[in-house]
Design a protein that fits this description.
It is built from 19 helices and 28 strands. With 591 residues, it is an alpha+beta fold. It folds into three domains: 144 residues, Creatinase/prolidase N-terminal domain (Creatine Amidinohydrolase, Chain A, domain 1); 141 residues, Creatinase/prolidase N-terminal domain (Creatine Amidinohydrolase, Chain A, domain 1, 3-Layer(aba) Sandwich), CATH 3.40.350; 287 residues, Alpha-Beta Complex (Creatine Amidinohydrolase), CATH 3.90.230.10. β22 and β23 form a beta hairpin. α4 runs parallel beside α5 and α16 packs antiparallel against α17. It starts with a helix and ends with a helix.
């Protein structure tokens, strides 16, 4: 079917079920950002492949609500599909609920699949519509009846990590969660989010592209802990190891049945990380306590073993990035390089590194105007050929058994303009401001976001995405609960958290600039005014200086840049051959 035909099929099914509006979120029963093929419902229905968005369909309108990261991409991908782009004013907001509330009369029926909507999202929809006498039904999966070749759930194997890799045993982690449960006076707890499950059980898998997770649910009930997983994913040895941690194993498909049979007086679940269908399966006799999964914050704070491994993996990734950019510079004049071919080459170079498992997200290789699309992924139709001129933005990362990386660099392929140089320098200045920040304990991400943006704001520039996000340890490249963005998220940046700092600037139709390093938050100094923290930069890859307009930088920025590039050379030089070392030496010269 074409996308128009799919939309028509959805509307026919809506009419047959007397549904006036149907909502399709970008999610799965685990409220994941990156999805198994079975749950890429928005892509199937509309053609939009971004990782954030919501479809709302009525009899006479079909819209995709998404944020500024995807405006250009969505406009292109939705052309001719019957869907229209609706630009979100606030990233992550459920503005489609307000839109429906303003247009639907009393007595209308709005439906969605409760497996794809978090408890929090479902509640926002209900709060907006129920007071207006609009019926809300969270148990309708229209796509299941019309998506004839819908992919099955993944069946790849999972595996366990040793304590030498993770720094903490499963028993210790489970006990820490139980302590939190006791403090909240609950005897049951549901963990649906796949990275929380992976962290708690020291288990990894291959069920979601780029994210080393395995589909499953983890239940705490009384003194019992049960993992619901496809049984064939684990070896007998792994089952025995989990058994030693008193973890029972049951089939994945039995999870919802287990919830509906709960005997506990109270259960803890995370409304942002639990699907509505799971929430609605909890017996009425069980009180629901809604709060952040205890494991989510525990996971975000890396222990010394995880931090040490991550520092080591940055050397491997830095070597790969050095070889990649050297190859680009040398071959662009003599070989036909495209956005797709260079992304493939970067993965090939990374794969030569020890313990490489996969990329951590689809590589964003944006040449010239494509660099202005923050989440661009080249297709056969859009695939641009590089020339020895203009700017190239590469945002990429790797999953290694000893850590996860995420890095963005912009390089000149030749003949750059004065305007490009100014924009690049201001973005670099912003990144340095964030990296150099000293801040009081308890500082929130939105405060760090504002400080980082200041050099751009001062010149009436800005960017539409957040300044940074948490990063997992051989886990999801986007990890909560903390974020560095303008949203008033009341989660402090704690010692041991790994975050990205990635300001940008995008001129639609011309070029895009983003410079990204990962940092580790650490204690700095305590005095009469309180405890202060700072960032240790983890990413080890040169920052291009031929794009810098030194007159726009203060001395502290110049000093930081020179010190950083010198550090990069010292960390990587012994891992490079003579030619590579000479090339990097030139790239890291002081300005």
């Amino acid at each position: 079917m074409t996308y128009i035909e799919r939309l028509d099929a959805i509307r026919r099914e809506m009419k047959s079920q007397e549904i006036d509006a149907y909502i399709i979120p970008s999610s799965d029963p685990h409220i994941s950002e990156y999805l198994p093929e079975r749950y890429k419902c928005i892509a199937w229905a509309s053609g939009f492949t971004g990782s954030a968005g919501t479809l709302a369909i009525t009899a006479d309108f079909a819209g995709l609500w998404t944020d500024a990261r995807y405006f250009v991409q969505a406009k292109e991908q939705l052309e001719g599909t019957g869907f229209e782009l609706v630009k979100l004013k606030t990233q992550g907001a459920a503005e489609y609920a307000t839109w429906l509330a303003e247009r639907l009369p009393a007595g209308s029926r709005v439906a969605f699949d409760g497996n794809l909507a978090s408890v929090a999202v479902a509640q926002i929809v209900k709060d907006a519509l129920l007071p207006l006498d609009i019926i809300v039904d969270g148990h309708v999966d229209i796509l299941e009846t019309i998506w004839n070749d819908r992919p099955a759930l993944p069946t790849s194997s999972a595996f366990l990590l040793d304590e030498s890799a993770t720094g903490e045993t499963t028993i210790s982690k489970l006990n820490r969660v139980r302590e939190k449960m006791a403090s909240k006076r609950v005897s049951a707890h549901i963990v649906s989010s796949l990275d929380d499950l992976a962290w708690l059980l020291n288990i990894r898998g291959n069920d979601v592209p780029c994210n080393p997770v395995v589909l499953g649910f983890l239940f705490f009930e009384g003194n019992e802990t049960t993992l619901f997983i496809e049984l064939g994913k684990l070896t007998d040895d792994d089952k025995a190891t989990l058994g030693q941690a008193s973890v029972q194993i049951k089939p994945y498909t039995k999870a919802f049945q287990a919830v509906s049979s709960l005997q506990a007086d109270a259960i803890l679940l995370d409304p942002k990380r639990t699907c509505f269908a799971m929430y609605d399966a909890v017996p009425e006799t069980t009180k629901i306590i809604e709060d952040l999964n205890p494991s989510t914050l525990m996971k975000a704070v890396k222990n010394d073993v995880e931090a040490t491994h991550t520092r080591n993996v940055m050397i491997k990734d830095g070597v790969a990035m050095t070889r990649f950019f050297k190859w680009i510079e040398e071959q662009v004049q003599y070989e036909e390089l495209t956005e797709i071919s260079i992304a493939d080459k970067l993965q090939e170079i990374r794969a030569d590194g020890k313990d490489f498992v996969d990329i951590s997200f689809d590589t964003i290789a944006g040449y010239r105007a494509h660099g202005a699309l923050p989440h661009y992924k080249a297709t056969e139709e859009s695939n641009a050929t590089l020339k020895a001129e203009g700017l190239l933005l590469v945002d990429s990362g790797g999953q290694y058994k000893d850590g996860t990386t995420d890095i963005t660099r912009v390089v000149s392929l030749g003949n750059i303009t004065a305007a490009e140089r100014v924009d690049y320098t201001l973005v670099l200045k912003a990144m340095i401001e964030g990296a150099q920040l000293v801040f009081p304990t308890g500082t929130r991400g939105y405060q760090i976001d504002a400080v980082t943006r200041r050099p751009l704001w001062e010149t009436l520039r800005n960017y539409g995405h957040g300044t940074g996000h948490g990063v997992g340890f051989f886990l999801n490249v986007h990890e909560g609960p903390h974020v560095l963005n303008p949203t008033n998220v009341d989660i402090p940046v704690k010692e041991g958290m790994i975050s990205s700092i990635e300001p940008g600037l995008y001129r639609e139709g011309e070029y895009g600039i983003r410079i990204e390093n990962l940092v580790l938050s650490k204690a700095f100094e305590a005095n009469q005014f309180g405890d202060f923290m700072h960032f240790e930069t983890l990413t080890i890859c040169y920052i291009a200086t031929d794009l810098v307009d030194k007159s726009l930088l203060d001395n502290k920025h110049v000093q930081w840049l020179n010190n950083y590039n010198a550090w990069v050379f010292n960390k990587l030089s012994s891992h490079l051959d003579v030619e590579e070392r000479s090339w990097l030496k030139e790239k890291t010269k002081e300005i």
